Amino acid sequence: MWFSKSAPEPEVPFFAWSSEEHSVGVTVFDQEHQRLATLMSQIHATVKEKRDRALTLKLMESLIHETRAHFDHEERVMEEAGFPEREAHVAEHSALIEHAKVRLQLFRNGAIGALVMPNFLKAWLIPHMQIMDRKYAAFLRRHGVR
Known about the structure:
It is globular and about 45 Å long. The protein has one domain (25-142): Hemerythrin-like (Four Helix Bundle (Hemerythrin (Met), subunit A), Up-down Bundle), CATH 1.20.120. Helix 3 (53-81) packs antiparallel against helix 4 (86-108) and helix 4 packs antiparallel against helix 5. By secondary structure, the protein is mainly α. The mean pLDDT is 89. The chain has helices at residues 19-22, 27-50, 53-81, 86-108, 116-142. The N and C termini lie far apart (59 Å).
């Protein structure tokens, strides 16, 4: 009996963006969140497939930089709109950046594996978007920001 080889199933990205699950309803921030998800998936794929430490480190640094830029953007818009819970949101952002920098340094020193960073950020970012970001997004939409 002859059996055909089935095509391998396409690999699902580490962080597969879903508008239904992850969207906050403000287009520019959804786009920025998607970019962060893509970077996390790139780090994950680089570690799993290429095992390239230098590239992984570069991508991690880029992820932290882009995350900080995204947070700065969110914080600026929240301030301009007068979002009343801005200070708590900023504190959460600051804590995440500090935790990420510590993990980056631990990775540089060889104290932790490369998957710690994308796993940590994914575990933090999804609930942050679904709870904290959706609060400010609802506020911004009520004030005309789409």
